[in-house]
């Protein structure tokens, strides 16, 4: 999956000619006008530039050169990752540098991502490289911002790719191509071995054609003596709902049902690129929940890899089935921390909307780290309870449990409780029920696939595991 070459758009400042960018907010603007505007003040006032977030004004250069740029940032003391995004979308190609001593933090991320689009399906592609930002403050953060932009763009591109072009085999190829270039070991289980070893993954994907056969993709990296970290992503490349078929309106966006896999894959790439001292285990159960004579049925009873039996109440509650087998496998490798990403329930969106991934954890410290890191990097999460009182809603008269609750209430919680039954004893575990989609565009964040929770989890785990 090709993404934008962000290294062309963000570089350390080596003194080349560049247009100054003045970051101002409403509070600072009068002071800036008094000190810097001069004869340009009437132009600024006539344009009704007030320093509001997203405002942009090109003004003549104060002394020579072509022009300078005023950028409204909302609050200068609290720069968001997206405060430069509108400028990056609208400014002409060329080089730009910050005027004054302004530490940008993660604001460069929005500058980069504002210039990324999936162009694979466009007959006419944009020419040029877009505006370039030169960093004189915090030049060491250039590589970090480029890595985060690459990871975010990868999630977006994978989610936006139509299901016809991104099946289980194509997901496997993405992982194998990365692994070959990064010294990562890959194991893929499919066919008879999948049916015998991972029955729930096999059952969900059994109705797909041979070319889109289900599989478990695993990748390993790092010293086996290091702390073991498992990252799992739901890889349902398209979800028809199975025999409990979705309506057309519910099926339209189901190419994004592998959004959890996209998040997990992008996070694994970050961890390997940053050389964390961990034994990384990436798991992607990749399936298509299709419809054929081989479909699993309501009322079927599946024997999971863990040995627990599961009665199928609803074939559209398939993501938790494939994750259950993957969680069991992560436990076999003695993972001390497990994080899974999944576009799991509509109930999470009803409760929290599209921007906030519902976050569940069996460990208070891990949960606290995730929430705090989400706030720090402006990638917010919201904790939801693993409420034991709802566990009985998963009861089955014939099997150890059902795959769907017998109540319409608390759907995201009962889904998380289902997953908890497969979490290995003693492991720290977090589950992110993420939307992986932006329904309306914002600066730097186009409508379509989106990484929601990726940077928060990366930052939280980095505090625990990344080499200082």
Automatic annotation (TrEMBL):
It holds the Pfam family Peptidase_M17. Keywords: Aminopeptidase, Hydrolase, Manganese, Protease. GO terms for molecular function: aminopeptidase activity. CDD domains: Peptidase_M17. Coiled coil: none annotated. The keyword NAD does not apply. Residues 314-321 form the Cytosol aminopeptidase domain. Belongs to the peptidase M17 family. This is Leucyl aminopeptidase family protein. The lineage of its organism: Bacteria, Pseudomonadati, Pseudomonadota, Alphaproteobacteria, Sphingomonadales.
């Amino acid at each position: 999956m090709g993404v934008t070459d962000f290294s062309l758009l963000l570089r350390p400042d080596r003194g080349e000619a560049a247009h100054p960018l003045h970051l101002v907010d409403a509070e600072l603007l009068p002071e800036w006008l008094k000190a810097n505007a001069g004869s340009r003040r009437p132009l600024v006032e006539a344009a009704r530039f007030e320093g509001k977030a997203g405002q942009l004004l090109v003004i003549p250069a104060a002394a020579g050169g072509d022009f300078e740029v005023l950028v409204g940032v909302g609050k200068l003391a609290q720069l968001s990752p997206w405060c430069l995004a509108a400028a990056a979308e609208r400014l002409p190609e060329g080089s730009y540098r910050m005027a004054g001593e302004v530490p940008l933090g993660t604001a460069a991320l929005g500058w980069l991502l504002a210039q990324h689009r999936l162009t694979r399906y466009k007959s006419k592609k944009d020419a040029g490289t877009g505006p370039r930002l030169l960093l004189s403050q915090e030049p060491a953060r250039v590589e970090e911002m480029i890595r985060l932009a690459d990871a975010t763009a990868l999630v977006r591109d994978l989610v936006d790719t139509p299901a016809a072009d991104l099946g289980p085999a194509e997901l496997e190829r993405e992982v194998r191509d990365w692994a070959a270039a990064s010294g990562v070991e890959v194991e893929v289980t499919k066919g008879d071995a999948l049916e015998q070893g991972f029955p729930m993954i096999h059952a969900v994907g059994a109705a797909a054609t041979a070319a889109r056969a289900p599989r478990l993709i695993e990748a390993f990296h790092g010293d086996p003596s290091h702390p073991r970290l498992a990252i799992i992503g739901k890889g349902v490349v398209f979800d028809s709902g199975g025999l409990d078929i979705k309506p057309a309106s519910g099926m339209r966006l189901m190419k994004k049902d592998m959004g959890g896999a996209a998040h997990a894959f992008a996070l694994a790439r970050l961890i390997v690129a940053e050389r964390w001292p961990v034994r990384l285990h990436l798991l992607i159960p990749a399936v298509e929940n299709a419809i054929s004579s081989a479909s699993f049925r309501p009322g079927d009873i599946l024997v999971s890899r863990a040995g627990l039996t599961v009665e199928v109440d609803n074939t559209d509650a398939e993501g938790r089935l494939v994750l259950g087998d993957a969680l069991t496998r992560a436990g076999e490798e003695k993972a001390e921390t497990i994080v899974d990403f999944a576009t799991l329930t509509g109930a999470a969106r009803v409760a929290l909307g599209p921007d906030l991934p519902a976050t569940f954890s069996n460990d208070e410290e891990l949960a606290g780290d995730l929430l705090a890191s989400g706030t720090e990097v402006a990638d917010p999460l919201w904790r939801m309870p693993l409420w034991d009182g709802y566990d009985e809603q998963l009861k089955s008269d014939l099997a150890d449990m059902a795959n769907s609750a017998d109540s319409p209430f608390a759907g995201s919680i009962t889904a998380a409780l289902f997953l908890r039954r497969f979490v290995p004893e003693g492991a720290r575990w977090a589950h992110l029920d993420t939307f992986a989609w932006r329904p309306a565009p914002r600066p730097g964040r186009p409508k379509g696939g989106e990484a929601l929770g990726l940077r928060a989890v990366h930052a939280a785990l980095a505090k625990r595991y990344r080499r200082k």
